[in-house]
Fold these 2 entries.
Entry 1:
Amino acid sequence: MKITGIRFGMLRVPLKTPFKTALRTVEQVEDIVVMVHTDSGQVGYGEAPATAVITGDTHGSIVEAIRRYIAPRLIGMDIADLNRITGLIQGAMEKNSSAKAAVEIAIYDLWGQLYGAPLYQLLGGGDPVITTDITISVDYIDKMVADSIAAVERGFESLKIKVGKDIGVDIERVKAIYAAVEGRALLRLDANQGWTAKQAVYALQTLEEAGVKLELVEQPVKAHDMEGMRYVTERVHTPIMADESVFGPMEVIELIRMRAADIINIKLMKTGGISNAVKIADIAGMHGIDCMIGCMLETSISVAAAVHLAVAKAGVITKVDLDGPSLCATNPVDGGVIFNESEISVTDAPGLGIREIRGLELLAEPKAA
Ligand code: MG
């Protein structure tokens, strides 16, 4: 099965409610879909969102990186040479992690199709059912409490609460939500870099003294402030998780060496795809550090790949934050991963099992010079 070409599409899906964090507000998912074609007629699918404030990737940069730097290295490559292909993708250029991820996801999809097995089985197997949390966007306290209660009633047992706007209001937000759902759902806070290290320690110690038990707090300080992350981790009982601070395996090694956080959030759009995500899970596992698997605002193409990885690495990836598909108003994809609110299950379809993508707008190929 040899690669013959790569094509692109744009997939737009409205969100049920606007997604609001300390960094941004988003109304709809708008992702680049990558289709890797082969001489056998089989097509592999990948996907990447523009997340300029986190990874630096934009729609234009994703397409340009793949078209000019990654695709030319892959044409004619045999899908069976998986490790060589992922090496070519990762070495094609610096950064551009989302572009690399989209292509890797499509390649792994084809790798599964080549051997007629669902991806998680080729990655080591596992129990093909996992449970995700759901994001509660940062908003007025009453709205966040109402959204949290509604999520619990939809069956979610873990809520990821977005904070990081105003430290005083953040503390009140969390206390109010905790009181409303106590005993029915675990709370994960995501500050999205919105606090200083001292503010984070103050907020978490205040919450701890008030009896609020949090499962974890994600990325309290700025992405580059690894010292600040360690400062917080050393001073609170609540487990601290690194998200924007760690992209690839090298940063994970540095974080572990510094003991800067207790948990690592793996996202394919940060790692540059599945090959590095596997490395991170293995490094973390060796050091007894748990991982979460997360996603950006993605649909069930790229999130499906994250699900397969999470199933295969469930011994290390103990927390799942793959709520992209359940935040979407509709599911545009018929595929091998079934998203049913908090429960995500995987069928035995080969690769990612994607049969149809509804509403995909194909992007025109540039005219030959
Ligand atoms: Mg996060």
Entry 2:
Amino acid sequence: MSEDIRSLSEEQLHQRFKELGYPAFRTKQVLQWLDNGCASFDEMSNLPLAMREQLAREFVIPGVTVLRRLESQLDETVKYLFGLSDGETVESVLMSYHHGWSQCLSTQVGCRMGCSFCATGMGGLSRNLSAAEMLAQIEAAQRDRGIRVSSVVLMGMGEPLDNYEQVLTFLKTLARPGGVNIGMRHVSLSTCGLVDGIYRLMEERLQLTLSVSLHAPNNEIRSRLMPINRRYPVEELLKACREYVRVTGRRISFEYAMIDGVNDTDACALELASRLKGMLCHVNLIPANEVHGKDHRRSSQARLRRFQQLLEQQGINVTVRRTLGADISASCGQLRRQERKEDEIK
Ligand code: SAH
Ligand code: SF4
């Protein structure tokens, strides 16, 4: 089987090229092409034809292709359905902010965490994405729009800490000058609360922003929404978060999807505030997206404002997430499911 050329480090590639009889400068040339998002050996025009042909026999450049593109009529949001080399698909969303383009990336095909409100979790996990496939999502969007992505959030399909090794390789490659070149301060990683993974990530002392999907102030509600809470209850999760803040000095962002009648009461707001008191953190309230086939409803605007106010009164930093791309159901997981259903009907 052909080898994934992008999964090799510079030294490994150098070694492989040496075995194939190529001089050292060829490694640099090929890396430069790969860093520029080149998706085919054919296009590496400064290599001799015979070398390009040999590389194509020995290696693959795993990439993504744009299968579908939904453009919002309300703002500049673009949602992609990307195809992978084995026929699997993932979603990604490109958003325009005043500080530049931000892209939401997938880290897995599907997800095995089974959160009750999430479209991605409905079909389980198909497979992990490789680091190269994560990078390729950025390169494909940049090529497609003729823009540079300046920040990245790992909030698309999948649980990043359930694909720890590849996500970490991806993060390290991301910051390499010459390539996509996005620094850790412009990266957010969102987790449903895999406590072991949080401790592991903490040891890396990366300057990224850790987002934790909390969605409930206590175990009773959280276990109903998120099965992972039975393994890592709220107390353990928040303990890991406090430790993370202490060691990295970085503020944690808690995601809280407001679901009508489930987690949006005054009592929930007060309990949440008492749990988070004193922690260097920030709460991001998200009007929950309604998902076809699920019966949860999003909280009203009035409820959202009231919840926000209560948290503020308790001294908690809180923002309400702006909804971008509302007309193209920009949250992840839904487009892929729709596409698969259409496939099944065909
Ligand atoms: N698996 C990771 C990251 C991907 S999900 C995680 O769970 O954190 C990205 C975010 O979208 C998470 O905060 C998740 O809880 C949230 N999310 C999933 N489905 C949602 C929905 N229907 N409405 C609002 N937020 C949702
Ligand atoms: Fe997986 Fe995150 Fe969806 Fe939960 S919310 S099922 S962890 S993608």
